[in-house]
């Protein structure tokens, strides 16, 4: 019986693993060298606020092509991760580890090795995106109450007392404290011979162009022709510009995905996909349909992880009722992009929401 | 070969779009057929950079496919190809090719929305087999015209097919409330499938019950051996088709469940609980008339149904209660159309009330708008 194991299901979101289950991985992470000084106090190397009392460690992939946890913790890294958690537990009031429920071995391993630390709690969740956003993680841990967790008293915002870090950040801090370099873990995914090829690499001050050339040497099919390079995730990221190619790779650039543009005028692609889906994968930057009027299907409401009335917000935006939109919870939107992903009418919901937020903020500044 | 055809189609579209006359007259039709067969080249310019495969063509196409397979095909077996097919073709000609294309030409729009095809397929299925062709054409023309007048797809308050049916019922009652045909039943032959069956007129089960209290056999009701509208008689296939739509998510399961559930519960309470003989028993209620067609295919129309989950439950219960009460105490034997249209009318106020309740219950973020140098998502 695992003591610090908490069951929590996060509603909303979309399990992209089912859609991208044919991802092949090419592990190229090198093992960390040398011995560790176990007594090094690495907690101070983490950029935590002084009054942080609760720490959330997110171990769930954040985007459809993000590095899976078992790749991040390959080799001996599992043990280092657990030691890092135990080290932090001496400084932090409570630590919550949110982890994909399918990683049963890792969950057992962490639970067993942290059973002496009574303030570490493990939350297995269904890997629906975007799990990494603070609002989503808070709901996962503290239930439906997004703003003020039950265990906190007084009128404080969650941010003052809680910090969110990812597994990569935790490992990097741990390695830094032991005078070792973990490097930056970057995921580069591209379409290779009828399947997605995901490469997880450990880089040390390399630029994206170096990584691209190195991968092109290894995989002759890797090409950016008729493709778009997206950094930071395909849902909430941005398209890479030419200037980014010369920048040093940083953690927030991962995952990098080279997506086919999908403008080849495929014949009845959905028909083909449904019947012969093993032949083609139609994940492209194509919208896969023309923009149509909203038909009230409420799929956007169903998938929204913060339970907004997206349809009502969209209607209010179309009718330019900005005050009403604010009341509907526009600023609660975490801009995950799931509503726009799911919409069958191909309405650019995310863009409209972002634009409305900017207009409202600008309108507020103008009125000051 | 498909790539060559696709390139040819693209070039044709460019030529049609260039000249004003062809753009006005033909571009919308070309675009509808082109995007049916070939992927449009529109790409996501900003996040999210991937989009779900299901688009409006899939959404409406699935409804059309299910209707064809689970309603039209059985009706061809029961009533004959020459009874069913001319009505469907004429409905499409009047609704889509005359009214909808004419509307697009007059207003200068470039898109023919897929919703018109669904409406025009529904129209013949909710009329009796003996309904004359001009009635079907008129109904589909009225349905598409009313939908466009309200603002097009997504803007209509009432289900356009049912509204057209109501207008025709009130205006031309003689043509649509008599002459119910006994369907064919037995081993099909080429003659029975293609030609009209021997026309034996009979009353519908609901009319018989209202008149004499006689209950038709459940098996006959399930398998379509009773008179009724073209698409509503073979109820076993309608149930399968409806379940398929619910499973794919196209039809929200809450509506048929609450609709049929409330019919069953209310009729059981009145018939068995209060011993009201004039109220039909629950199984007969569920299997007679157009209830299954209405509950799975018409009440679940997302445009005219509430979009909140709680609203869908209320909508379904309202439809079910009205169906039972109007069937029992109303002047007409069938009441599905009236109950769905009534609840469609209440859809907007229902959505508004539920939204206001939601806003009162939902706690707003403490941080509110982004401040200072924060932009976008408030932290």
Highlighted features:
heterodimer; A: 368 residues; alpha/beta; six-stranded mixed beta sheet; 16% strand; B: 379 residues; mainly alpha; 19 helices; 0% strand
Description:
The complex is a heterodimer of chains A (368) and B (379). Helix content of chain A is 32%, strand content 16%. By secondary structure, chain A is α/β, with parallel strands linked by helices. In chain A, strand 8 and strand 9 (238-239) form a beta hairpin. With 379 residues, chain B is mainly alpha-helical. Chain B contains 19 helices and no strands. In chain B, helix 5 (81-107) packs parallel to helix 7 (133-150), helix 6 packs parallel to helix 8 (160-171) and helix 8 packs across helix 18. The longest helix of chain B has 27 residues, at 81-107. Chain B is globular. At the A-B interface, strand 9, helix 9, helix 13 and helix 14 of A face helix 1, helix 4 and helix 19 of B.
Secondary structure class of chain B reads mainly alpha
Cα-based radius of gyration of chain B, to the nearest Å: 23 Å
Category from helices, strands and their pairing of chain A = alpha/beta
Please count the helical segments of chain A.
14
**N-to-C series of helices and strands of chain B:** HHHHHHHHHHHHHHHHHHH
- Helix count, DSSP H or I runs of 4 or more residues of chain B: 19
Query: Main beta sheet of chain B: strand number and arrangement?
Result: none
What's the quick description here?
The complex is a heterodimer of chains A (368) and B (379). Chain A is α/β, with parallel strands linked by helices. Helix content of chain A is 32%, strand content 16%.
List the helices and strands and how they pair.
The complex is a heterodimer of chains A (368) and B (379).
Chain A: H1 16-19, E1 24-28, E2 54-59, H2 69-72, H3 77-89, E3 94-100, H4 104-113, E4 120-125, H5 134-142, H6 158-161, E5 162-166, H7 167-177, E6 184-192, E7 195-203, H8 208-218, E8 227-231, E9 238-239, E10 256-260, H9 269-275, H10 299-303, H11 310-318, H12 322-327, H13 338-342, H14 349-367
Helix pairs in contact in A: 3-7, 11-14
Chain B: H1 2-18, H2 20-25, H3 27-37, H4 56-79, H5 81-107, H6 115-125, H7 133-150, H8 160-171, H9 173-176, H10 190-194, H11 205-212, H12 218-223, H13 235-248, H14 254-273, H15 282-287, H16 291-298, H17 309-329, H18 336-345, H19 347-361
């Amino acid at each position: 019986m695992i003591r610090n194991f908490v069951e929590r299901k996060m509603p909303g979101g979309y399990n992209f693993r089912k859609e991208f289950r044919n991802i092949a991985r090419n592990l190229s992470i090198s093992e960390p060298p040398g011995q560790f000084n176990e007594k090094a106090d690495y907690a101070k190397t983490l950029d935590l606020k002084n009054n942080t009392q609760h720490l959330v460690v997110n171990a769930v992939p954040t985007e459809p092509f993000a590095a899976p946890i078992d790749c991040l913790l390959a080799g001996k890294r599992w043990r280092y991760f657990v030691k890092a958690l135990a080290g932090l537990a001496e400084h932090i009031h409570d630590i919550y580890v949110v982890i994909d429920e399918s990683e049963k071995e890792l969950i057992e391993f962490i639970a067993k090795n942290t059973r002496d630390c009574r303030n570490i709690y493990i939350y297995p969740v269904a890997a629906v995106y975007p799990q990494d956003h603070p609002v989503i993680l808070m709901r996962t841990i503290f239930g439906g109450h997004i703003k003020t967790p039950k265990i906190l008293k007084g009128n404080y915002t969650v941010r003052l007392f809680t910090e969110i870090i990812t597994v990569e950040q935790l490992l990097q801090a741990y390695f830094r404290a032991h005078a070792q370099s973990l490097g930056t873990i970057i995921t580069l995914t591209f379409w290779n011979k009828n399947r997605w090829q995901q490469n997880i690499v450990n880089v040390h001050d390399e630029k994206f162009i170096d990584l691209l050339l190195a991968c092109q040497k290894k995989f002759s099919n890797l090409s950016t022709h008729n493709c778009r390079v997206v950094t930071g995730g395909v849902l909430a990221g941005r398209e890479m510009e030419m200037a980014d190619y010369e920048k040093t790779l940083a953690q927030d650039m991962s995952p990098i995905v080279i997506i086919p543009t999908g403008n080849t005028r495929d014949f009845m692609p959905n028909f083909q996909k449904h019947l012969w889906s093993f032949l083609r994968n139609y994940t492209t930057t194509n919208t896969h349909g023309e923009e149509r009027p909203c038909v009230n299907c409420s799929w956007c409401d169903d998938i929204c992880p913060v339970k907004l009335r997206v349809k009502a917000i969209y209607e209010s935006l179309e009718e330019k009722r900005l005050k009403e939109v604010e009341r509907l919870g526009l600023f609660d939107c975490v801009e995950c992009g799931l509503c726009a992903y799911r919409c069958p009418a191909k309405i650019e919901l995310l863009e409209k929401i972002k634009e409305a937020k900017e207009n409202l903020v600008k309108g507020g500044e103008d009125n000051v | 070969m498909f790539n060559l055809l696709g390139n040819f189609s693209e070039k044709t579209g460019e030529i049609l779009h260039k000249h004003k006359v062809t753009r006005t007259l033909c571009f919308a039709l070309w675009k509808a057929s082109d995007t049916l067969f070939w992927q449009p080249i529109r790409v996501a310019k900003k996040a999210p950079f991937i989009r779900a495969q299901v688009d409006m063509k899939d959404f409406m196409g699935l409804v059309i496919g299910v209707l064809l397979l689970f309603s039209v095909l059985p009706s061809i077996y029961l009533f004959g190809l020459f009874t069913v097919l001319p009505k469907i073709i004429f409905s499409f000609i009047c609704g889509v090719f005359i009214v909808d294309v004419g509307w697009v030409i007059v207003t200068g729009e470039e898109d023919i929305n897929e919703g018109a095809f669904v409406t025009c397929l529904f129209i013949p299925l909710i009329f009796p087999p003996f309904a004359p062709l001009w009635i079907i054409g008129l109904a589909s023309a009225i349905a598409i015209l009313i939908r466009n007048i309200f603002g097009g797809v997504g803007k209509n308050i009432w289900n356009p097919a049912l509204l057209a049916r109501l207008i025709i019922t009130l205006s031309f009652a003689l043509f649509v409330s008599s002459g119910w045909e006994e369907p064919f039943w037995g081993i099909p032959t080429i003659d029975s499938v293609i030609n009209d069956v021997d026309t034996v007129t009979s009353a519908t089960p609901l009319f018989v019950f209202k008149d004499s209290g006689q209950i038709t056999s459940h098996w006959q009701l399930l398998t379509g051996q009773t008179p009724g509208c073209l698409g509503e008689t073979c109820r076993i296939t309608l149930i399968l088709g409806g379940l398929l739509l619910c499973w794919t998510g196209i039809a929200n399961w809450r509506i048929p469940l609450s609709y049929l559930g409330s019919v069953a519960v209310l009729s059981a309470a009145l018939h068995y609980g209060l011993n009201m003989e004039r109220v039909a028993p629950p199984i007969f209620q569920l299997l007679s008339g157009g209830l299954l067609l209405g509950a799975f295919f018409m009440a679940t129309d997302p445009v005219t149904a509430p979009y909140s989950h709680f609203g869908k439950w209320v909508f379904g219960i309202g439809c079910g209660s009205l169906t039972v009460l109007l069937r029992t105490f109303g002047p007409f034997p069938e009441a599905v159309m009236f109950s769905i249209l009534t609840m469609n009318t209440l859809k907007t106020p229902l959505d508004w009330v539920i939204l206001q309740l939601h806003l009162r219950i939902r706690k707003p973020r403490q941080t509110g708008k982004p401040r200072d140098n924060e932009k976008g998502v408030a932290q």
